[in-house]
Design a protein that fits this description.
The protein has about 180 residues and is mostly helical. Helix content is about 75%, strand content about 5%. The protein has four helices and three strands. The longest helix is centred in the first third of the chain and has 94 residues, at about 1-95.
Length: about 180
């Protein structure tokens, strides 16, 4: 039986050796698969991180742009409010004009208008006496008044030189100049 034992031992040894070779080959294949999966996972991780960085930069730039636009809009809104206030103050000051300044304004304005003589002059009630005394115009209404400036009526035709309408009419041209002065731009 020693021959049989030798054969069995040899078969067992060959089986162990073959099992070890299969095990070694299996571990080698397993490691290659694991290494390949790790490599693929790292590549995917890098792609995801690159994409996230690009997206975060785009988001950051968009937020900065939105903030800059909001600041610009707020500045424009504040400037618009200041300009509105300037024109309101101008109208208020013109309404509070003293008699001498008003008479000078009226003389200069009437001199630049082609009058027929049939027009009725409407002035603020507080200036009727001084206008009549000045002799600037002969047909001054004592029944109708305006708040500021003057108006000329001839039937259905009205020439409006109220300070409010004059300021509003000239506002577009004046705004640029006033803004340049106020905001030094």
């Amino acid at each position: 039986m020693s021959n049989l034992e030798n054969i069995i031992d040899k078969i067992l040894a060959d089986g162990k050796r073959e099992a070890q070779e299969i095990n070694d080959e299996s571990q080698k294949n397993n490691q290659e698969i694991i290494d390949s999966m790790i490599k693929n996972a790292n590549e995917e991780k890098d792609r995801i991180l690159d994409k996230a960085k690009r997206e975060s930069l785009m988001l950051k730039e968009r937020k900065i742009s939105e903030a800059e636009l909001k600041v610009r809009d707020e500045k424009l809104k504040a400037k618009r409010q200041i300009l509105d206030k300037v024109f309101v103050l101008a109208k208020e000051r013109l309404v509070k004009m003293d008699e001498n300044t008003y008479i000078t304004f009226l003389k200069q304005s009437l001199a630049n208008i082609d009058l027929k003589g049939s027009e009725v002059l409407l002035v603020p009630e507080k200036f009727i006496e001084v206008v009549e005394k000045s002799g600037i115009y002969s047909n001054v209404s004592r029944n109708e008044f305006i708040e500021s400036g003057f108006q000329l009526k001839d039937g259905n035709i009205m020439i409006n030189h109220s300070f409010e309408s004059l300021v509003d009419f000239g506002r577009e041209d004046l705004e640029v100049e006033i803004a340049r002065e106020l905001f030094q731009e």
